[in-house]
Design brief:
Helices cover 58% and strands 9% of the residues. By secondary structure, it is α+β, with helices and mostly antiparallel strands.
């Protein structure tokens, strides 16, 4: 900041927006917005040279540019031609329409914010309200940003803004901007109430045009319950250690957590269109998993502009979400079947396990048989991984070197040595050879394994 101050000269420069809000809230700040009288792009170029950062032009029209320092600190500079108050008036919410002069930020003087819309009072009351009546009309995406701030900060949205959400249209908003806000909303720990509101206001159906899904109360209610149960599972690790390890891995990657929650919300998206009723009233949804997977792949990749990797993750997770349920209810859980599950699910296998736990909870309460099946699969996968890296101390050449003739008994001897090595009963090659000699001398191996010469005698 002091280096920026040295560039200031006679310019008006202010820290604005979320950075001021986060200073008030005592949060760590790695993204700072600056508003300045004059050219924002020209000042950003100068700042990039001074701070040894990367200069990134954002918009010539809006005179906005970015400086990235050490790939972590992001400084955005935007010029204004009129007054600071007019710049703040054009912002979205009162909590983001507060400014601090750069001099005030750097100096040790008392905190002296410029707060024409009483944003500090709204921060204190944990309230999200717009700066002006036309705020949402000027940029309808701001309605999603309101829910994003609710998810991130735990603030409440004003009643008037909640009402406005019911009539806001997103049809002219770039899909990439919508996707960005949605992903951040889903990254938060507790987004179930927000998703409920996005459904109630009709905003979520504008993003995901699945009328059959949103009109089918039973499917929608179950999906929301799976979503809520998934959030509970991710926020409370009360499972066996191997399952908790997966939960911890998912939580360590907010982007992955966001995608898994999106998968939970729409894992049954094609149930309404695949419903078949038998004469006795029983219902079936044949192929709803694969059909729903294709629908989500198209929606995410073609409409919402998710990356290929993100779209395919959701597609594969939905397509595979029935496999574990079928495996857990089979009469016999064989190693072959468990390996087939891991092979078919591939990279999403473990994440789908957590999704299916949530599905099981939502359907029948805590399902111990699912937990037991998952633990068995994970234990087998762990053993297989270790065996793939396993290097035996003794091999066939070692047996030939001590005078044995190759034959069927080699397989028996080497298998026994491998088990002893797994059990840490032999610690190296010498101990393995000593064990073979001891068994030979005691006559415990068959005659076909007798030494080929007198080297062992």
């Amino acid at each position: 900041m002091r280096k920026l101050l040295s560039l200031k000269k006679d310019k008006e420069i202010y820290v604005v927006g979320g950075a001021v809000r986060d200073i008030v809230l005592g949060k760590n700040i790695l993204d700072i917005d600056f508003a300045l009288k004059g050219s924002g792009m020209a000042f950003a170029e100068e700042a990039a040279r001074k701070l040894k950062g990367a200069f990134v032009p954002l918009s010539e029209k809006d005179d906005e540019a970015r400086v990235v320092i050490n790939k972590e600190l992001v400084l955005d500079f935007k010029g204004f031609t009129d007054t600071l108050i007019q710049d703040l008036t054009a912002r979205d919410f009162t909590i983001n329409a507060i400014a601090l002069s750069l001099d005030n930020v750097v100096s040790s003087k008392s905190f002296s914010p410029i707060d024409p819309f009483e944003g500090l009072k709204d921060i204190e009351k944990k309230r999200i309200k717009t700066v002006s009546r036309d705020s949402i009309k000027n940029d309808p995406l701001r309605i999603l940003r309101a829910y994003r701030f609710k998810s991130q900060l735990g603030f409440e949205i004003s009643h008037s803004l909640e009402k406005e959400a019911e009539t806001t249209s997103l049809k002219d908003v770039a899909r990439e901007r919508i996707s960005y806000e949605l992903k951040i909303i889903l990254q938060a720990q507790k987004t179930y109430p927000i998703i409920n509101r996005l459904i109630a206001t009709g905003l979520l159906e504008q993003i995901f045009p699945f009328p059959d899904f949103f009109r089918d109360y039973a499917v929608r209610a179950h999906s929301l319950m799976v979503f809520e149960r998934l959030e509970h599972i991710l926020n409370h690790k009360h499972f066996p250690p191997l399952i908790n390890d997966i939960i911890e891995r998912i939580n360590s990657a907010p982007e992955k957590r966001s995608l898994l929650k999106l998968t939970a919300l729409f894992h049954d998206v094609s149930k309404p269109e695949t419903l078949i009723k038998d004469k006795d009233g029983s219902m079936h949804f044949y192929g709803h998993d694969t059909r729903g997977a294709k629908k989500m792949l198209w929606t995410l990749s073609k409409i919402l502009r998710f990356s290929n990797a993100e779209s395919e993750y959701v597609e594969q997770s939905i397509a595979r979400h029935m496999h574990l349920h079928l495996l857990a209810t089979s009469q016999e859980l064989t190693e072959r079947a468990m390996r087939r599950y891991m092979r078919m699910c591939g990279s999403v296998a473990e994440d789908v396990m957590i999704l299916d736990l949530a599905d099981g909870f939502a359907t029948a309460g805590r399902t111990r048989h699912l937990e037991k099946t998952i633990t068995s699969i994970l234990e087998l996968a762990s053993q297989d991984a270790k065996r793939s890296e396993f290097k035996p101390y003794v091999n066939g050449n070692d047996l030939i070197e001590i005078g044995l003739k190759p034959g069927p008994i080699f397989k028996i001897i080497l298998a026994e040595l491998e088990e002893l090595q797994w059990e840490n009963k032999i610690q190296n090659k010498d101990e393995g050879i000593a064990h073979v000699k001891e068994r030979l001398e005691s006559g415990e191996y068959t005659m076909s394994a007798e030494p080929a010469d007198d080297s062992l005698k």
